[in-house]
Specification:
By secondary structure, this protein is mainly beta. About 5% of the residues lie in helices and about 25% in strands. It is built from 1 helix and 6 strands, in the order E-E-E-E-E-E-H. The chain has one helix spanning about 65-70; strands at about 5, 10-15, 20, 35-40, 55, 60. Strands 1-2-5-6 form a 4-stranded antiparallel β-sheet, with no helix packed on it. Strands 3-4 form a two-stranded antiparallel ribbon. A hairpin with a 4-residue loop joins strand 1 and strand 2 (about 10-15). It is globular and about 45 Å long.
């Protein structure tokens, strides 16, 4: 289950894959921050833990890191006990 978006303002095509469920329909105009789908492990990732495959393209693939990074001064690291490693965790914290 995949969502492809065309960014008409910047000329990018965005790719979200391995979704468990879509939250948008074909041809729908979406806004920044809108939920597109829900993370899963579908397609060729059916034997992996749920995750999102995100890609950016414009005349070929583009490294998305410069577009999605945030200042490390604003990020609060998640803290949990060592015995929780490998288990799913829900972390809710405000950005400072």
């Amino acid at each position: 289950k995949v969502v492809w978006l065309r960014d008409t303002e910047h000329g990018f095509v965005l790719y979200y894959a391995h979704l468990d469920q879509h939250a948008v329909r074909s041809g729908q105009i979406v806004k920044r921050g809108q939920t597109l789908g829900f993370v899963g492990n579908t397609g060729n990732a059916s034997r992996t833990t749920p995750h999102l495959h995100f890609g950016m393209y414009r005349q070929g693939p583009i490294d998305p890191y410069p577009f999605v990074q945030q200042s490390s001064a604003r990020l609060v690291p998640a803290r949990f006990a060592d015995e929780q490693l490998g288990a799913f965790q829900r972390v809710t914290r405000r950005l400072v």
